[in-house]
Amino acid sequence: MKRLLLLACTCLFSINSVASDLTVSDQYIRATPPHAKNSASFLTITNHTNTTIKLIAADSDIAKRVELHNHIKQDGMMKMRQVEAVEIAANSSTSLQPGGHHIMFLGLNNNLTEGQSVKVTLYFDNGNELNIDAPVKKINSNKNQGSTEMAHQAHH
Ligand SMILES: [Cu+2]
Questions:
Q1: Per-residue pLDDT, 136
Q2: What is the distance in A from the centroid of ligand 1 to the CA of 105?
Q3: % residues pLDDT > 90 (the chain)
């Protein structure tokens, strides 16, 4: 009987430690003007383990497709590229931020207005899944937003 209890405790403990392998902070998703087709979400992921973990996919029911993207400079222009994964090195943080990696929402079902919050699921290569709530925020830099929209139209 004692051994059984011990076993049960070990199980609970290991479930706990899996859940805390990764934490997400500072998440938000960009508010969109009327009739906008796309938006992007930004966040910081912290890896608390001793091995590299990759973010391999994201999903949400607000858009037809959700992709992982990066910005690259090509011929003097910032362009969007879909990427297979975003690495979070052991015991460190990776930020997805404007001008760099982001989670892309293509084919929005509705406008995103400030005050809403969006549920996003993140999938990692170690089997972890994280459900996050990302508040909708206006991004102050109009220049950034403009170039992002343009790059998308060119890309898609
Ligand atoms: Cu993008």
A1: 97
A2: 8
A3: 70
